[in-house]
Amino acid sequence: MPDSSTLNHAARVLTTVSPELHADVALRRYTTTVRSLGAREKRAVSQAVFAYFRWIEWLDPKASQQKRVEQAWAMHERFRQNSHSVKAEALAALAVPTWLREEVNLPVESLRQLQREPVLWIRARPGKALALAKALGNCELAPEVRPTVQPLTALRYTGTQDLFLTPQFHNGEFEIQDLASQLVGHACAPIPGQTWWDACAGEGGKLLHLADLMVNKGVIWATDRSERRLQSLKRRTARAKLFNYRAALWDGSGKLPTKTKFDGILLDAPCSGVGTWQRNPHARWTTTPRDVEELAAVQRRMLDAVAGSLKAGGRLIYSVCTLTRSETTDVVKAFSAAHPELEPVSVFSSNEPSAPALTSPACAIGETDTFAESAVTLWPHELNANGMFIAAWRRRK
After folding, report:
1. Which architecture, in CATH terms, is 179-395?
2. Which residues pair with 120 in a beta bridge?
3. Tell me, which fold does domain 120-176 have in CATH?
4. Which residues are catalytic?
5. What is the pLDDT of residues 9-35, one digit of tens each?
6. Contact between 190 and 265 (Cβ < 8 Å)
7. How many CB atoms lie within 10 A of CB 259?
8. Over the stretch 212-228, which tens digit does the pLDDT of each residue have?
9. Where are the alpha helices (DSSP H) in the chain?
10. Is 0.85 topped by the overall pTM?
11. What is the C-alpha separation between 119 and 157, in angstroms, rounded?
12. Residue 201: helix, strand or coil by DSSP?
C-alpha cells in the first residue's frame, strides 16, 4: 500500500487532471515541479494515479481523493495477486465506457489485461539484442516473436533503472518501442534499397525500425503535420546514426509532399488509441464516440490520398493502435471497395513472425478468410502489449 506521502501527491495530481489536461501530462508537470521527488517516489505516484483511473468505477464517489486513491490501490493489489478475483461481468461493465460495446467485443482476457500495469518493451538494434540484454540486465526475449529468419530485436525490460540515462540508449543501441508497434515494422517488411513513405511518422519510432530493416539503404520519406515532431525525429535518427530519410510536412490532405512513387507506404494513422488504454487508462474516460467517428473519416481520407503514390506491385500498410470497428474493419472494407486497383495481401510475409501465432484474424467478426489474412487484430492479452490493427494491400501490376 502506498504511504501517506504518495497518496497525498497522487491526490494533488488528480485535482489538476481534466478532459483537456490528461493524466500523463499532469503527472509530468507535477513531478517536474516538485523537485523533492526522487525516481522511486515519482514511479509510486504514477502507479497510484494510473491505478485510480483503472478502477475509478469501483470507487466510493463520496470518499476523499486520498481515500479513493487508497481504494484503487487496494483493488490493484487484489487483482495483481489474483486476476480472477474480479468477475468478468464486472470488468465488462466497469473497466471501459459503455459506448465501446457498440464498437468492439473485447475478449475477457483483454479486459483483464487492461487492468494490469503495462510492461516495457524495447527494440534492440540489429545484431545487438543478446549483448544488450546482458548489459542492461532484467531483459526477456519476447517468446511470441521468435522469428526463424528475422534477427531477434524485441526485449521485455523488467528492471527499474531509467533506460533513457543508460549509455546504451545514448549510443543508439536500442529504442523504447511497444511490441505491437514493432510488429507493424515487420508487416511492412521493407527491402534494402527500396523507397518507402512513412506518412504519419510522428517522432519516428516506426521509421527507425524501417530504416534498420532496410540496413540504412534506400530512402524513406517521413512526413507529419507537426514540425516539432519532425525535429524530434531528426534527433532520434542522429542518435541511431540512421540517415536514409527525407522529412517534410504533410497535413494529410490531397496536396502531397512529393510526386515520388513508392515501393511501400506505411500509414500509421491518427486514431482513438483504444489499444493503448492499458498504458493510458485516463483516456478511457475522455475518448468519445464522436472522436471515433471523426477519426475514421480522417483515416479514410488519408488512405485515399496516399493510394495513388504506390508503384505497381507496391505495398500499402495501414495500422492503428485502436480496436474499434469504425476505425479498423469498416475503414478497410470501404477503402478496398473504392480502390479495386489495390488487392488485399497477407499482413505478414513468409519471412516474418507467423501471423496465426501472433494475431486473431479480423474475420472473427464475420469476414472472409482472404480478408482475415490481409487484416489482423493484435489483442492486448495476446502480446502483453498495446492492441493494434494492421491491414495490407498491394497495387496490382
Report:
1. 3-Layer(aba) Sandwich (3.40)
2. 157
3. Alpha-Beta Plaits (3.30.70)
4. 321
5. 999 999 999 988 999 999 999 999 998
6. no
7. 6
8. 999 999 999 999 999 99
9. 4-16, 23-33, 39-54, 65-81, 88-94, 108-114, 129-136, 167-170, 179-188, 205-213, 227-240, 289-307, 329-338, 355-358, 369-374, 380-383
10. yes
11. 8
12. coil
